[in-house]
Amino acid sequence: MAVFHFRGKKLSGKLRTPSDKSISHRAVMLGSLNRGKTVVREFLRSEDCLNTLKAFVELGAEIDDREDEIVINGKGKQSLKEPFNVLDLGNSGTSIRLISGILSGQPFYSVLTGDQYLRKRPMDRIAVPLRTMGAQIFGREGGKYPPLTIIGKRKLKGIDYKSPKASAQVKSAVLLAGLFTDEPVSVTEPAKSRDHTERMLRAFGVDVEVDGLTVRLGKNRELERDIEITVPADISSAAFFMVGAAVTPNSEVVLREVIINPTRTGILKVFERMGVDYEVFNVKSSSGEEIADIRVRYSPNIKGIEIGGSDIPTLIDEIPIISLLATQAEGETVIRDAEELRVKESDRIKTTVENLRNIGGDAEELPDGLIVRGKTKLKGGKVFSHGDHRIAMTFTVASLITENPVEIDDVECISTSYPGFFDDLKKVLNE
Ligand SMILES: O=C(O)C1=C[C@@H](OP(=O)(O)O)[C@@H](O)[C@H](O)C1
Ligand SMILES: C=C(OP(=O)(O)O)C(=O)O
Predict the structure, then answer these.
(1) What is the residue range of 186's domain?
(2) What residue spans of 35-123 are helical by DSSP H?
(3) What is the DSSP letter of 17?
(4) ipTM given for this complex
């Protein structure tokens, strides 16, 4: 258990929050399929990404971890070997789902598992299209839950997959499996999810066409480049300090080198509409992604808004911290079309609402989202993170404005995505 109470302090200063989790995973995965040298700088050393790294070492990729950079001497997409052991992906949905796509194209047997939370997350969303492409995938409860067993094939079948969900993990699993066939492969989603896989595949030389909500693999499906990737700061991690500054009197923070890919910046649109005082500057391009510095100042006069539709995938991981922001907005904030939150590390609709109420917030569950009514003076109290890093960070930030301390049962889960969270908090927490 951890107890926090930062009321009376402000957030000020500059931070380079940790590197992007989605891009770090993909850099190791694609680097391991590459025929060429991949150098990854600013790799995120969080538990999730280290689990991806370990899995590819287990799969025989030649990975030299030099602390300041990771060098992968890739031998091509057919060079992976049957793993001697079960691949344990810990807490990481991105790892297990994207790796399943890659293993579908490997002619060997592998078993993938994870922690108690990952083993409850649905895998049929990827197993269904990957089986259509020719992979054999087994799992608990009729093939739905990990541990998963995958027996892949060197040559898969093509697919034109109409994904029922706007999920980058589903889209990426199919595209990665699509590297192991010459037949047509496309994925169409109901709304655009993060597009890091498409961008990075292109950077490695693969032909990828994007036509509205459809992504199609073209003729060349070989990764054959010597490449250097510098991973930008993760907006999903920066978001905790952005909102922390917006709700705490006298605060002003600058988050540096944050990814501003439009499939990730829904939170900035929310800031705009709520009236948060923020600014995006120093826009640059880095390894095929745009990055920028983001300044956020204390914003006492924000208002509630409705959030839904195609904006949801662009801010999906930020909904717990946006809900905290909404407690300080005048009027109602209604979040809809976010039923995906129910199958994240925790049921984030339930755990966000339950914990907001525990600290004195006015929040209500909807089947596909939540309603938060503001503006409330938060009291503080007991919070249960349910092993969910984003819930633990959201309610640590809440303690900047609660009257009494916030007690959180488990904050160790934060190392899933942000191992240096408390050190960074110390850096910008000032009198
Ligand atoms: O592809 C990715 O890197 C991710 C996609 C999202 O999940 P879904 O694809 O399940 O929506 C997101 O919530 C997760 O944190 C990372
Ligand atoms: C949902 C998340 O990650 P994953 O699906 O990779 O576990 C997250 O980081 O909030």
Answers:
(1) 22-208+223-230
(2) 47-58, 93-103
(3) P
(4) 0.99
